[in-house]
Design brief:
two-stranded parallel ribbon; about 240 residues
Length: about 240
């Protein structure tokens, strides 16, 4: 049956003469395209144009297509969530981000008001994917990686002038909200007030120590007041990492 072919057969026959890959030439006649890294660039271009212009209705592709050009489809079928890893010589799971990217191709904005994605998965992983799809993973904070630079910017602008200000500043961040909700992710043992204070105090001390080592700030004689240096102002103004 050639139900997936939406163009005159004679037109497709003429086009197929320019296709180098024999398997692709055969499948195109039925309105089914193939897309993978082994294809010649001209063959890939032909398949892409036919699918985008709805001349062929089915496209069998490798997972890398999801990260490349945007080819939306009404229905996306993910035939398995594993791939063979040549380095380890066994099958491993696709990263969740890859699965999401592939699912994201479902739905054509100009034609559909919804898209359909079907995932074929081993029975033992079925519950995990159901949970993951209906209860998305929380977004965690990466503030700790750049905390010294953020504190430096606030010290330069004058909104932070002491170690206590640093503590107060952190309590207004998304990081602090996630710390309370998911302490183990940030290596905090419990959420008792004393534990949180000790933990935050340690973070502030470490960040300020890094800024002092980088000559971005100075601690005044009272050992409380934080004073920005010329280097600190330059780092803040040009969005430079304090260790640059």
């Amino acid at each position: 049956s050639k139900q997936w072919l939406h163009m005159p057969e004679s037109e497709m026959d003429n086009l197929a003469k320019n296709v180098r890959d024999s398997n692709l030439k055969l499948s195109l006649a039925f309105g089914i395209g193939l897309h993978h890294a082994g294809l010649h660039e001209k063959d890939r271009k032909i398949v892409e144009e036919l699918f985008v212009n709805q001349k062929i209705q089915v496209l069998v592709a490798t997972s890398t297509l999801a990260w490349g050009v945007n080819f939306p489809a009404h229905l996306v079928v993910i035939k398995g969530t594993e791939y063979f890893d040549g380095k380890t010589h066994h099958y491993v799971d696709f990263p969740i981000t890859d699965v999401l990217q592939m699912m994201g191709r479902a739905g054509r904005p100009q034609f559909d008001d919804k898209g359909v994605a079907v995932i074929y998965v081993h029975d033992i992983k079925k519950h995990f994917y159901k949970k993951f799809l209906y209860e998305p993973f929380p977004v965690e904070s990466n503030l700790l990686e750049v905390l010294p630079d953020h504190l430096n910017a606030e010290i330069v602008s004058g909104t932070i002038t002491s170690k206590q200000d640093c503590m107060d500043y952190i309590t207004w961040t998304y990081f602090f909200r996630r710390l309370i909700m998911n302490p183990s992710f940030y290596e905090l043992d419990d959420v008792q007030s004393d534990s949180i204070n000790r933990f935050l105090s340690g973070l502030v001390q470490k960040a300020l120590g890094e800024l002092e080592t980088s000559y971005c700030i100075e601690v005044a004689e009272d050992e409380r007041t934080l004073v920005p240096t010329s280097l600190g102002r330059i780092a803040s103004f040009y969005y430079l990492h304090n260790g640059t």
